[in-house]
Amino acid sequence: MTDPVSTIRNLGPAFEQACAEAGIHSADELRELGADEAYGRLLQSGTKPHFIGYYVLVMGLQGRPWNDCKGEEKKALRQRFDAIKASARPAPENQMISELDAIGVRVAAKDLKMD
Hints:
The protein is an all-alpha fold. Helices cover 55% and strands 0% of the residues. The protein has five helices and no strands. The protein is globular, with a radius of gyration of 16 Å. The mean pLDDT is 88.
């Protein structure tokens, strides 16, 4: 049996559930993917982007406390996070959702009454 994601420092059951929804089912899989690839998969599976969540993952994979990220290192992680966020948007389910997204309105197909 492989170790669950929540055995990695800083990562709890909610993060483990998000990983499972993104197809990441073990701590070994998460380590193998690395923080950037894993976080991109989380975003593609519907996890809302959050910088703190990203750097908590990075710190956890390095075995460091979540709040150990400071100064220039934190600035560099912010740039990586922004790049991941920009490239990992889920594909819109239809043209209307795409157009609403372009003006900043976030909806899912289930929110629209499509007759």
